[in-house]
Structure formats: structure tokens, C-alpha cells
């Protein structure tokens, strides 16, 4: 491991501690700014887990976010449960739903999966607006009347830390390499003995769990939810935009993309809300055309970040120490 | 009105609606067949077509039936330009890149329309009244819209079948490499196919704005309907899209009438999901992911 990468990874826990202490020093909008940043970055990491690593692009990840928000809305808003119980339950329910859903949806490939997921999101939104008895339909739910910034801030920080940890593990494990092999060529991966169905569903479930939790926290933070707001396609687009911007299928990509996105949203778009959607769309177009592999790739090409995944470095070293079994290990995966 | 007459009336309504869905889906399917790209911004081009017709009517009093003279060539040009400047450049990139590109394009167009025209619902009140046949009431404007859709569908069909250029498009859809070896300029074919697809969507929008209101986000509902339709008919199949359109129109109208309007709305998603799950390749032939 080089000096530079040691420094880089060592910085993350330091930033984590600073983030944990931030509510002592920051208040009001400044704290909300970081809360929103964690929300965005967390969502980007979630989407990245399935779409970045396996290449199965989901246009409907907002479904999990919306379901999570509604679980907390119903439990805490209507039945007055403690949010500390409701939020984990939201995550658990989304996880339970995501396994059979993933099994069904992941049989679809390429554009079929993308648009199938969009239909799932739209159908979930429709259920939320039609099932008045459970969700109060279009009236929406008043989840909380108090201002819950600090609690939600810590909640999002924990979720973010976990999803980053999971992504780091995926990025440096054989599981992650298997997911990448699915992205590059699924048939070939299968032929090499990868149980693609199992790995895809696991990635899908992981990638659904965190938006469920984040959606639950968001409902508690924002205080009022209705089907239009929490199932807004905007959340799905933003997840895609942030991840592509930073670099899909990488560990640092969603972090970079999410932070950049939050700064742009909070400094520019809040002042010109009428151009928000237009510039989001334009940003996706520009990224796809000019930096399809994200900022990370640009940094790597300039030599500011190392090229190689650490698991590959480890594998290469283990190969080098046993000279008989010399094998070709690719430079980059 | 008796039960059987009601049934007939509902079927007729479904058929008239289905004709327009068929036109939208045919364009989407054509583009997919040649380029292997799902034009996610298809609904937005439809919306833009409707908006163009609305503004021609509102500003200059041009009849929606005449505005097709502007809408068709305008969107042929726009479609060709979009394909050349954006989509052609990701032809060699991984296939999902083109999908993401049209996804971004769709949000760009929605946002642009909102910035230009606000979120108001706009429609062109045109041709009130109905034809009365026995006890059946057929709104005149729907008949006109259906005929318009049928006309363009037929025109494109014969263009694809009979004309030299149409044959080049079909050849490219069947096998791009062989088409190229036969001297077909497949880059040009891709441009023209996209232009035709966009123009048919915009034309459908001009017809729809006479029937229902248009607003910047109206296209979103149609992309899922169009996708449900092509999945019903088999992605890439022109005739299949027509069949799918009529089926979707009937299911929506019947679901809306006999169950509730929400069921009518939801039927596109339900059809889409059920068919994708039972036959991931669509009802007719086409294999997913190939």
C-alpha cells in the first residue's frame, strides 16, 4: 500500500468523527446542509450497489425510498410509534419486499429491467395514493410536528457509514468482482461458475435496504409526506446523476458525486427552482457524453488516484509469492 | 342503454384510443428495431408535438388538423438533429449509455417546457359533438384523431415495405453488418429512423391535445403506456405494436369503466409487469437482452 492511499483512507474515519461532532458546533441551515448531503450521498451509494456494480440500471429506486417513508409515516405519524423503532422496521420491510421483487425483476435484462423498475415505482406510488385506509391517499400524512434535525442527522450519518462500509467491502471482495463480471458479460460470468442470480439478488436487496432506511428518516425529518413527494421520480434521477457524476461501480464515486451534487443543488438550484429539472437532465446528458465513467475516472487518468482495486493488489501479491501459479491479473477491473 | 350496447360503446372507445397508442408505440418500436435503443424521451416528443399544436392554435388560430403540416417536418428535423448530435455519439458505448442519454434528454425536455410554459394544462377545444349511430355516441374529435393515427401508421408501413429507403431501414434492423456490406449507409438509416419515430410521436401528441390536456409532464404517462404496448406486441415489431396499442386501449377503457378509473390508469403498469415477468421477451418473438 502506498503512502498516499494510506493517507486517503485514514482521512475517512477522521471525517466521520468530525461529522459526529458537527451538531455541537453547527445549527440551523448549516446542519441541514450536511443532513441533505448525507441523504444524497447515501442514496447514491445505494443505487451504486446494484446499478453501478452489476450494470442493471434501475429507474425505479424511489420505490424503496417511498415505501420506507410510508412505513415511518404510518407507524409514527398515525400510530405514534417511536421513530427509533419505526425507521429500522421500514428498512426491514423494504428488505423483505426486495428479495422476491429482485428475484422477479432481475430476470429482465438491460432496458427491460430499467423500465420494469420504473413501472414498479409508478405502481407503488399508485398503491400509496389509492389505499386510503392505510396511507390516507392523496391527503398525505403529517408524520411529525416537531423539528427533528439532530436525530435525523445522526440517523443518516449512521446509515451513510454503513452503506459506505458495505460498498467498501463489496469493492474489495470476490463478491464485488463477481458483480463486476456480471456487468461486463453476464453469460461469460455464468460460464465461469458465478451464481449470477444469487449475487444479483443479494446486491439488489442491499441496494434496496438503504433507500428504505433513508426514506424513513426523510419522512421523520420533513414532517409531511404524500405520494407525489416521496415517490417523485426526481429521487431516482438524482441517484443516477450523482453516481454517474462521481463514477459508477466505484467506492469513492458516489461520495464525490453526492457532495458535488449537494453543493450545486443548495447553492444554485434552490435559487432557480424553475431550471432544476432542466439542468438535471442536461447534466445527465453531458456526463454520459463526455465523462461516462465519472470524475473518478478523470482523476485516475491524471494519476491522482491509483488505478487498481486493492483486492487485485492482494491477489497479485499472493500470486507473486507462489511463483509456480503465475497468472495474468488484469490491470483494472 | 342496454348491456350489449354498453359493451359495444366501451369497445369502440377503447379501439379509438388504442389507435393513438399504436402510433406512439410503433415509433418507439421502430427506433428500437434499428438502433437497439429505447427512446426514453419518446413521451416528451409526444408532449412537444401536442404543445406545438396548442401554440399554433392559441397564437395563430391554426386548426389542429392543419398544424400537422408544420409538426411532421419540424419533428423530422428535430429528431434527426437529436440523433446526430447526441445519440449517434454513444453508438459504440455500452448499450445502457444510450438509454441513460435519452433518460436525461427526457428530463431536460420536461424542465425546458416547464421553464418556457409553466405547468398549466393546455388543450385545444376542437370539434365538439358526436356522431350518433343507433344508440352509440362517438365523439367526432376521437374519430378524427383515430383516422389521423391510422393514416400515419399506414403511410409509415408502406414506406417501410415499398420504398427503397424503407427497405434499407428494415435491412438495418435485421442485420446492421450485412446491411452495411450491401452498401447501406447505416448511420444515415439510424438518423432517419429516429427522425421518423420522433415525428410519429409528435404527431400523436398533436392528435391527443385535441382529446386530453397536455402539460410538461404529460409525456411520462405515455412512455410507460408505449412501453407496455411494445412489450405486448414484441419490441421491434411494427405490426405487433399496432396490436398491442389496441389491446392496451381496450384494457384501459374497460378497466376504467367496469372497475374504477384508477384500475384504468394502472392497467398499463400491470400489463407491462405481468408480461415482462411471464414472457421477458414480449408476447411476440423477440428475446430480451439480445
Gist of the model:
The complex is a heterodimer of chains A (333) and B (290). Chain A is mostly helical and 333 residues long.
Helices, strands, pairings?
The complex is a heterodimer of chains A (333) and B (290).
Chain A: H1 3-25, H2 29-54, H3 62-78, H4 83-105, H5 110-130, H6 132-135, E1 141-142, H7 149-171, H8 174-184, H9 186-191, H10 196-222, E2 224-225, H11 227-230, H12 233-246, H13 253-269, H14 276-290, H15 294-301, H16 310-321
Antiparallel strand pairs in A: 1-2
Helix pairs in contact in A: 1-7, 2-7, 2-8, 2-10, 2-12, 2-13, 3-4, 3-5, 3-10, 4-10, 7-10, 8-10, 12-13, 12-14, 12-15
Chain B: H1 3-35, H2 42-60, H3 64-85, H4 95-117, E1 130-133, E2 136-139, H5 140-162, H6 164-174, H7 176-181, H8 186-211, H9 218-233, H10 238-259, H11 261-278
Antiparallel strand pairs in B: 1-2
Helix pairs in contact in B: 1-5, 1-8, 1-9, 1-10, 2-3, 2-4, 2-8, 2-9, 3-8, 5-6, 5-8, 6-8, 9-10, 9-11, 10-11
Amino acid at each position: 500500500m502506498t503512502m498516499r492511499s494510506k493517507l486517503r483512507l485514514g482521512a475517512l474515519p477522521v471525517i466521520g468523527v468530525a461529522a459526529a461532532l458537527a451538531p455541537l458546533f453547527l445549527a440551523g441551515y448549516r446542519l441541514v446542509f450536511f443532513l441533505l448531503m448525507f441523504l444524497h450521498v447515501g442514496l447514491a451509494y445505494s443505487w451504486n450497489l446494484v446499478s453501478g456494480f452489476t450494470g442493471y440500471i434501475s429507474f425505479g429506486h424511489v420505490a424503496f425510498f417511498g415505501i420506507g417513508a410510508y412505513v415511518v409515516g404510518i407507524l409514527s405519524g398515525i400510530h405514534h410509534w417511536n421513530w427509533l423503532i419505526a425507521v429500522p422496521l421500514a428498512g426491514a420491510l423494504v428488505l423483505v419486499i426486495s428479495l422476491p421483487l429482485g428475484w422477479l425483476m432481475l430476470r429482465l435484462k438491460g432496458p427491460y429491467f430499467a423500465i420494469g423498475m420504473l413501472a414498479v415505482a409508478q405502481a407503488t406510488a399508485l398503491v400509496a395514493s389509492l389505499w386510503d385506509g392505510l396511507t390516507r391517499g392523496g391527503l398525505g400524512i403529517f408524520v411529525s410536528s416537531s423539528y427533528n434535525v439532530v436525530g435525523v442527522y445522526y440517523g443518516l450519518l449512521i446509515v451513510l457509514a454503513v452503506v459506505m462500509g458495505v460498498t467498501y467491502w463489496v469493492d474489495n471482495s470476490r463478491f464485488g468482482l463477481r458483480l463486476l463480471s456480471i456487468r461486463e458479460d453476464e453469460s461469460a460470468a455464468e460460464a465461469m461458475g458465478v451464481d449470477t442470480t444469487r449475487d444479483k439478488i443479494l446486491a439488489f436487496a442491499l441496494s434496496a435496504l438503504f433507500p428504505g432506511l433513508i426514506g424513513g428518516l426523510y419522512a421523520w425529518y420533513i414532517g409531511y409526506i404524500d405520494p407525489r413527494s416521496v415517490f417523485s421520480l426526481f429521487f431516482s434521477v438524482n441517484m443516477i446523476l450523482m453516481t454517474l457524476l462521481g463514477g459508477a461501480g466505484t467506492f469513492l464515486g458516489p461520495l464525490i458525486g453526492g457532495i458535488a451534487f449537494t453543493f450545486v443543488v443548495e447553492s444554485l438550484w434552490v435559487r432557480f427552482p424553475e431550471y432544476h429539472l432542466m439542468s438535471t437532465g442536461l447534466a445527465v446528458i453531458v456526463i454520459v457524453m463526455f465523462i461516462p465513467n465519472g470524475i473518478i475516472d478523470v482523476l485516475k487518468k491524471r494519476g491522482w488516484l491509483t488505478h487498481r482495486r486493492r483486492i487485485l493488489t492482494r491477489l497479485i501479491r499472493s500470486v507473486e509469492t507462489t511463483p509456480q501459479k503465475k497468472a495474468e491479473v488484469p490491470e483494472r477491473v | 342503454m342496454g348491456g350489449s350496447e354498453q359493451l359495444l360503446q366501451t369497445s369502440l372507445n377503447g379501439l379509438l384510443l388504442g389507435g393513438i397508442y399504436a402510433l406512439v408505440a410503433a415509433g418507439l418500436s421502430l427506433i428500437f428495431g434499428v438502433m437497439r435503443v429505447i427512446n426514453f424521451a419518446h413521451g416528451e416528443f409526444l408532449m412537444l408535438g401536442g404543445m406545438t399544436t396548442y401554440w399554433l392554435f392559441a397564437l395563430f388560430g391554426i386548426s389542429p388538423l392543419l398544424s400537422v403540416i408544420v409538426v411532421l417536418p419540424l419533428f423530422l428535423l428535430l429528431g434527426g438533429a437529436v440523433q446526430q448530435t447526441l445519440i449517434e455519439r454513444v453508438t459504440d458505448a455500452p448499450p445502457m449509455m444510450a438509454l441513460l442519454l435519452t433518460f436525461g434528454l427526457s428530463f431536460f425536455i420536461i424542465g425546458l417546457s416547464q421553464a418556457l410554459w409553466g405547468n398549466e394544462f393546455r388543450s385545444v377545444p376542437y370539434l365538439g359533438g358526436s356522431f350518433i349511430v343507433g344508440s352509440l355516441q362517438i365523439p367526432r374529435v376521437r374519430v378524427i384523431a383515430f383516422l389521423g393515427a391510422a393514416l400515419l401508421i399506414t403511410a409509415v408501413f408502406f414506406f417501410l415495405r415499398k420504398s427503397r429507403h424503407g427497405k434499407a431501414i428494415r435491412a438495418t434492423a435485421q442485420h446492421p453488418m450485412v446491411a452495411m456490406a450491401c452498401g447501406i449507409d447505416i448511420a444515415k438509416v439510424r438518423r432517419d429512423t429516429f427522425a421518423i419515430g420522433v415525428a410519429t410521436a409528435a404527431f400523436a401528441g398533436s392528435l391527443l391535445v385535441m382529446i386530453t390536456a397536455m402539460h410538461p409532464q404529460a409525456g411520462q404517462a405515455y412512455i410507460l403506456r408505449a412501453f407496455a404496448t411494445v412489450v405486448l406486441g414484441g419490441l421491434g415489431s411494427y405490426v405487433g405494436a399496432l396490436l398491442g396499442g389496441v389491446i392496451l386501449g381496450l384494457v384501459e377503457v374497460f378497466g376504467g369503466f367496469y372497475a374504477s378509473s384508477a384500475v384504468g390508469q394502472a392497467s398499463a403498469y400491470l400489463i407491462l409487469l405481468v408480461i415482462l415477468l411471464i414472457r421477458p421477451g414480449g408476447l411476440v418473438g423477440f428475446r430480451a437482452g439480445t
